[in-house]
Amino acid sequence: MKASQFFISTFKEAPADAEVVSHKLMMRAGLIKRLGAGIYNYMPMGLRVIRKVEAIVREEMNRAGAVEITMPVVQPAELWQETGRFEKMGPELLRIQDRHGRDFVIQPTSEEVVTDIARQELRSHKQLPKNLYQIQTKFRDERRPRFGLMRGREFTMKDAYSFDKSRDAAQVSYQNMRQAYQQIFDRFGLRYRAVRADSGAIGGDLSEEFQVIAATGEDAIVYCPDSDYAANLEKAEALAPTGTRPAASLPMSQVATPGKSTCPDVAELLGVPLSTTVKSLVLATDELDDKGIVVKSQVWLLLLRGDHDMNEIKVGKVPGLDAGFRFATQAEIESHFGCKPGYLGPLNLLQPVNLVVDRDVAIMADWICGANAEGFHMIGVNWGRDLPEPSVVADLRNVVAGDLSPDGKGQLAIERGIEVGHVFYLGDKYSKAMNATFLAENGKPAFFEMGCYGIGITRLPAAAIEQNHDERGIIWPDAIAPFTVVLCPIGMARSEAVQASASALYDALLALGVDVILDDRDERLGAMLADWELIGVPHRVVISDRGLKEGTVEYQHRRDTEATKVAQDGILAHLKGRLGL
Amino acid sequence: MKASQFFISTFKEAPADAEVVSHKLMMRAGLIKRLGAGIYNYMPMGLRVIRKVEAIVREEMNRAGAVEITMPVVQPAELWQETGRFEKMGPELLRIQDRHGRDFVIQPTSEEVVTDIARQELRSHKQLPKNLYQIQTKFRDERRPRFGLMRGREFTMKDAYSFDKSRDAAQVSYQNMRQAYQQIFDRFGLRYRAVRADSGAIGGDLSEEFQVIAATGEDAIVYCPDSDYAANLEKAEALAPTGTRPAASLPMSQVATPGKSTCPDVAELLGVPLSTTVKSLVLATDELDDKGIVVKSQVWLLLLRGDHDMNEIKVGKVPGLDAGFRFATQAEIESHFGCKPGYLGPLNLLQPVNLVVDRDVAIMADWICGANAEGFHMIGVNWGRDLPEPSVVADLRNVVAGDLSPDGKGQLAIERGIEVGHVFYLGDKYSKAMNATFLAENGKPAFFEMGCYGIGITRLPAAAIEQNHDERGIIWPDAIAPFTVVLCPIGMARSEAVQASASALYDALLALGVDVILDDRDERLGAMLADWELIGVPHRVVISDRGLKEGTVEYQHRRDTEATKVAQDGILAHLKGRLGL
Q1: Which of A262, B401, B498, B557 is deepest in the core (most CB within 10 A)?
Q2: The complex's ipTM?
Q3: pLDDT of B452-507, one tens digit each?
Q4: Does the beta-carbon distance from B67 to A44 stay under 8 Å?
């Protein structure tokens, strides 16, 4: 490709609404162009990256035996009503009516349609397993679209769906996809982790996220540097504490802590470690009648160590809280604790509450908690003496760095990631809802065992940039760079030698199948190099009259701090080496 | 590809709603699957065809210097309000509101968005010409979607838009695209014609349709077998008649023609050629006030020869009818003619009408027309004697086979076609409406001169089938076949020789880059061959034990009536010859 025939559009400044670096750099490098909130044009430079991502995904999906189809963007509501998602999904599901007033949705995903295909097309166990995938436009009407392609409304996703005759067979399909994903992410040339994720109501361990590691990632990833344990923070188990509770050594007393309504404030005031304080979280559950009207509510008090954070997924597995919970209202808190939040604790309650104690709190002695009196805390609190031994003890907290790994092989570390892939065992959730069956070996109809597997095609370039950039711009891995090599001839219009050398190298690289761009725009050197450093093409060759006179050109990888002089007649071999050709 | 790992789903019967052969065969061969009215899943076999069409289009668009982008499916209404199309377009434009109540459309085409990109990105004449294209999902909410992918609601289109600094430059871009289209359609391997089309209000000749020739096509195409003249019937000019009016030879008289209300009926009753009769068509025009209320209507009488059909485009160019017209109401007809339709004519009117006479009628003598009295016609009517010489004479009719070609090089013929491409000079229609300018050489802002260029990606396979099929199924051209070669081993599971021979040929073809499928499903021969004839793979090799014993396999092209025995060790060379490798 010659730059003069392409479309290069770079900007010095990012728009004001760009908050994260990938959004800023994608806008500045002209990869995307905003059309509306969360809706972007994919410009020529950006589309090249997206097409390379698609090609790698398609190749590996095909290699893994999946078969490509395309399901419509606009889908009839009927199928979505069969699974109940038409009603259940929130406003992020874009609903429309056609000219005849019939309901449709813009697909955010395609479980319903693919299950409808399967129940018509896959009639016998002999046709299984089957994995159908598409690379298709999706729409989710996010309340607050932001971060460019990271959380857009219209985006492209690769979504695959496997159909199997049994749970065991489904596990094979799942592992097959998991392997394909590793292959795909290896080929992208990004640092990533496959981490265990919560599989919600379906249960089991068959849910993993593929996270691209980046300091700016939305997700916290827990991993063990000494083993292959890795999990989403939501999912990561805390091991049961190994210590035992020390004996009580202090008497319980009330201390004035005016204006100190958080554990860190109290610990600082009292000059004690944060880990000796206990925080009180007040939740509530509602009991509904047939008509969905609340007939009774219960209040719950959760105790966690002051230096620990609540994990909502784990709390949601506590018996009594597993049908859904909410934070308690101010009125509920005051009627049970006789006090405003900030000074709450398990002592001196006005009305009984359901107490759930984190395992680490259950082995504490001489701890500190709110006194249920504004401006006061209790110190030297002890189980069995000042209040009864806790009867409900559970894992309620997020793990923290330094916790023991659940596999017993070391201590956990935490880093941040961006979810770009997800493999998920669905079971018969959709096949049951849609009565999707096949004839099993025993001659009877059986529900499909399903899995679903997504990759955020248009999110991936954003994640790649979050991981790979510097103050000058993007640094693409070779596999998904818009161009692999850029040739920058200086003063091409005025020097026949430069022109001849650049053209010869360009032709030689094209003949090798290298994705090369020749910058024939005749820009000033500074502007030219700034453009390509912003755009992030990994390999650059500068060709100048001065260099040619001494028989050299300059090679620089985008990660190099300086250019390397290479003999003019050795540059092709040098590039072949760098490109692994 | 091995059939066992692919997705093959054929049906003996087509669904009842499939009216045209391409729809029937695409459903039966499992290329597409209906999801809703005019909405289809592209199944694996069909998607392979679509991807090949896309790849050819993309390659030739790139070669022609166009640059690929992707514009969103869901587009903000604001831009569509700038051109007025948000209001003006009928219900085929699917309109939606997002969760915040903002208006959006599902793109049926992208002139607004691409012009918005151009006005922001193309600031100087130095950046021109530029041609941006996309291959993207479109939606048009057709009132009566039908014929499968021929007239669906959701479909894929390649739409390109050129931006130029002058009308002359725009013509160069137009011709460049026209050439690329010829290249593309040549590569598809289909019989087609580029025909002149009406360019509506914009005028000029710069509008051509690419029509795939098929007896079942919706469009009539006029062409001259002895020259390269070709036009859509709407557009094709009738040459001015070369003859002169004969002298009147009959007196005018009224004859009873009870129940004979059409020209053919009258001609038959009277035993005269249809070309001696004249048909009367009554139109009306309305004059509106500021508020759009009709303040005055006029009635128009058009006279055409009984064997000719009215051409609405041509009628719409007659002064007085060029701002829009409608057919007259029953009341308007009776108040002016004193008679019901079927017996109308230009004589004995109750009120004056605007008379427009086709050129061929203006040179007739002794003609026949309605008497404006039910059950009666006039015969022996003559201009200048029985009614004044016509003052408004125009080309009002469709050409017919045998008319002289407008280029003077022979007689016109008519065949039918399916429009799958359109190249169109837009001028400054959109750039003016959206104030899209660039800085011209004189330093002043100027409006872009635009062109737009479409190809119906998902319609093309349907058109290809309409042109290429027989009673057994589809016959694909090599370039867009889902697979180029199918290997059909008989009894592969029971014969090592068959298996070895099939595998060797399969591997050899794969190594050559041939898109080959090996049918390893172990189906009965009859069922296997019926499947592949229905699906329409152009080249087939049958490998059997019996053949191998005498050292042969059987080759058959899908168009051949019989298989050809080919030496086993010569089949690869034979295939290479057939495939042009």
Answers
A1: B498
A2: 0.89
A3: 999 999 999 999 999 999 999 999 999 999 999 999 999 988 999 999 999 999 99
A4: yes
DSSP string, B339-405: S-TTS--SSS-SS--EEEEEHHHHT--SEEEE-SSTTEEEEEE-BTTTBPPPS-EE--B---TTSBP
**Domain range spanning residue B335?**
253-394
pLDDT score of B351: 94
Put simply, the answer to whether A121 touches B9 (Cβ < 8 Å) is yes
Check B94 against A75: CB less than 8 A apart. no
Q: Which of A33, A67, A104 sits opposite B6 (nearest CB)?
A: A67
Among B78, B39, B404, B1, smallest CA distance to B240 is for B404
Report yes or no on B227 lying in a domain. Answer: no
Is there a single domain that holds both residue B440 and residue B560?
Answer: no
Alpha helices in A231-275 (DSSP H): 263-270
Residue A298's beta-bridge partner residues? A285
A233 within 8 A of A398, measured Cβ to Cβ:
yes
pLDDT over 60 at A324, yes or no: yes
Same domain, B38 and B99: yes
Same domain, A328 and A439: no
The alpha-carbon gap from A48 to the nearest alpha carbon of chain B, in Å, equals 9
The residue among A120, A174, A170 whose CA lies nearest residue A438 is: A120
> Among partner residues B43, B65, B99, which is closest to A143 by beta-carbon distance?
B99
Q: Taking Cα atoms as reference points, which of A46, A22, A57, A20 lies closest to residue A421? A: A57
A408 Cβ contact list (under 8 Å, min separation 6)? none
| pTM for this model (two decimals) | 0.90
Note the Cα B395 to chain centre separation in Å. 24
State whether B385 and B283 are in the same domain. Answer: yes
* B248: closest CA of chain A, how far (Å): 57
- Whether A54 and A137 map to the same domain: the answer is yes
Domains contained in chain B, number: 3
B202: pLDDT strictly greater than 70: no
CA dihedral for B177, B178, B181, B187, sign (positive or negative): negative
Write b or e for each residue in B382-391: b if 16 or more Cβ atoms lie within 10 A of its Cβ, otherwise e: bbeeebeebe
CATH number for position B493: 3.40.50.800
Instruction: Tell me if B278 sits within 8 A of B306, measured CB to CB.
Output: yes
